[in-house]
Design goal:
This protein is an alpha+beta fold. The chain has three domains: about 1-120, no CATH class; about 130-235 and about 330-390, Alpha-Beta Plaits (2-Layer Sandwich), CATH 3.30.70; about 235-325, Double Stranded RNA Binding Domain (2-Layer Sandwich), CATH 3.30.160. The protein has ten helices and eleven strands. It has an eight-stranded mixed sheet with strand order 2-3-1-5-4-9-10-11, with helices on both faces. Strand 2 (about 170-175) and strand 3 (about 180-190) form a beta hairpin. Helix 4 (about 55-90) packs antiparallel against helix 5 (about 95-120).
């Protein structure tokens, strides 16, 4: 009897908004935004009926579906609450009143859950987080040969973390430090797996080490750096114009061998608008070196494109999230003290061996992701609040 009455009662708009506002101001603002999206969704439904849909509209409609699902759940819960209140006002037995109050509390708990789900859905997502393949490029920075030894440690840390995540990790190239016959002047890894870009994108930047170098006879501490760039796999709709590329071929240089300095197999490609250059001489074939150089250049330019787009998104939200720049010093590894400090989140952990084995890296990544999420959440709440004041 009660359930039938609840389903058949109707709310006016004032009652509905008042109920939401009393439960949560945030929920009230969220419902307004979801209502706007529902209007947009209904428009696409009309286009579907008329047969006037294209791929862009269809993709947008699919993006809206989970948000609209939450919107309808909110409507249903508030309707049940208002109908229960009306029944209470009509009077009834103590058991009936108690049951109705329990129903109201149950629906309020549902609404709290819907609020969290809606906030997650409404927060602006990185459109490239779905990318499952990327290259990690690590370069030795300041510190001479010690910098190349540290770069080798960073390469190993990423390989170990990839293994813990069950990602496929392949070494594309490792250029050793010829002065010491080891270390890594430049190293490139190709990593494939679920959530790989979503996690590793925050590792782009300068990593600093404090320790006594192997070559230090007097036992003095030195500071060295290694830089990391995370290059997501290029999407199919990202193209380079031939008129923007300059190709040059030259003799390969290296430690010696039959083909070194005898054939013009090495290829250098310059992207004229940006001045970015890529040289590849890994293969004896000029054509294969050309293809590889083009692929590396395309990856670099796509990474810049992604970064610039993310920066524009942050500026439009007026977010000031430290560490978004690839040139920022993001983390310091203090070997004597076994201390690792992330300068973007102020998270400090101890245990250098666990860090380099990849065991602690996930906690640093998670902490940074939480910071980004909270910043986006605050931006969203500020945006909703400002819209309500207009």
């Amino acid at each position: 009897m009660i359930k039938k009455f609840i389903l058949n009662c109707h709310l006016n708009r004032f009652q509905f908004s008042n109920t939401l506002n009393n439960i949560s101001k945030t929920l009230y603002l969220i419902n307004q935004r979801l209502g706007e999206l529902n209007t947009e969704y209904e428009m696409y439904q009309e286009h579907t009926i008329k047969g006037d849909m294209n791929e862009i509209k269809r993709r947008r409609m699919n993006e809206l579906q989970p948000k609209i699902h939450i919107y309808k759940q909110i409507q249903a819960s508030v309707s049940v609450i208002e109908d229960a209140k009306q029944l209470i006002s009509l009077g009834g037995t103590s058991d009936e009143i108690s049951m109705l109050n329990e129903e109201i509390q149950t629906q309020i708990e549902y609404l709290k859950k819907y609020q969290d789900e809606a906030l997650t859905q409404l927060i602006e997502q990185d459109e490239y987080d779905h990318i499952r393949q990327l290259n990690v490029e690590v370069r030795a920075g300041v510190g001479g040969s010690e910098g190349s030894l540290f770069a080798e440690d960073i390469i190993g840390m990423i390989q170990n973390y990839a293994s813990l995540q069950n990602w496929d990790c392949r070494v594309i190239s490792i250029q050793k430090d010829t002065q010491i016959g080891k270390g890594c002047k430049t190293g490139i890894l190709q990593i494939t797996g679920d959530n790989v870009y979503q996690q590793l994108k925050c590792e782009s930047g300068v990593h600093k080490v404090i320790r006594v170098p192997e070559t230090e006879a007097k036992g003095r501490l030195h500071s060295s750096t290694a830089s990391m760039i995370v290059l997501p796999k290029v999407t199919d709709n990202f193209h380079l114009s031939d008129k923007d590329l300059k190709y040059e071929f030259m003799k390969a240089s290296g430690p010696g061998g039959q083909h070194v300095n005898k054939t013009e197999s090495a290829c250098r490609i310059t992207h004229i608008p940006t001045g970015i250059q890529v040289v590849n001489m890994e293969d004896r074939s000029q054509e294969r070196n050309k293809q590889r150089a083009y692929q590396i250049l395309r990856d670099k330019l796509f990474a810049i494109h992604v970064q610039e787009k993310q920066e524009r998104m942050a500026q439009s939200r007026k977010s000031q999230v430290a560490g978004s720049d690839r040139s920022d010093k993001i983390r310091t590894y203090n070997f004597p003290q076994e201390r690792i400090t992330d300068h973007r989140t102020n998270l400090t952990m101890y245990g250098m061996e666990k860090m380099l084995s990849g065991e602690l890296l996930g906690e640093f990544i998670q902490k940074y992701q939480e910071k980004i999420h909270n910043a986006k959440l605050q931006d969203l709440l500020d945006e909703l609040s400002n819209e309500n004041k207009k």
